[in-house]
Amino acid sequence: xxxxxxxxxxxxxxxxxxxxxxxxxxEIHGFDxxxxxxxxxxxxxxxxxxxxxxxxxxxxxxxxxxxxRRNSSQINRTSALENAETSDIGRALxxxxxxxxxxxxxxxxxxxxxxxxxxxxxxxxxxxxxNELDPNQKKMVELxxxxxxxxxxxxxxxxxxxxxxxxxxxxxxxxLYLWSLxxxxxxxxxxxxxxxxxxxxxx
Length: 203
Fold this sequence. Notes:
This protein has 203 residues and is of the alpha+beta class. The protein contains 7 helices and 5 strands, in the order E-E-H-E-E-E-H-H-H-H-H-H.
């Protein structure tokens, strides 16, 4: 079915959009149940939201949480709060039983697939960059990779980041190849260090 119907088929499974779930919620419960949202945490990096469904006596009957990182997608750079609110509403409604067989909403699944495609494309570019290097260059990058991982395993994340930065700005292919040799957790830790390095130092 199309997204206009509120039900989307993704990889053989049917997911309901949040708008569809809200419509069903009002159709079934009218205003006997109240749906509210609140910001749990919010800064320049991420937003955490919570949706709560209560009865008229104030008893909580379902909740849903969501987190959106502002740098995870182009739309999140301007609308992370809105996306987080949509997701937490969808998850609260799923907890109430308005989610079909799938807890995630169509919106969340579509966003996740889009991010996976973006990550795959970025990884492919890194691997291709490695193919441009000669054997000596690749060996140098692989030795740097070993030292980076050794530093990370010793919880010396700043040193690991420094090793990555030892590859100068004109060594773009080498940097991309190094990135392709690290797993997602290692890359995340290095990125956290890079973000810290960009922050202005206190006077």
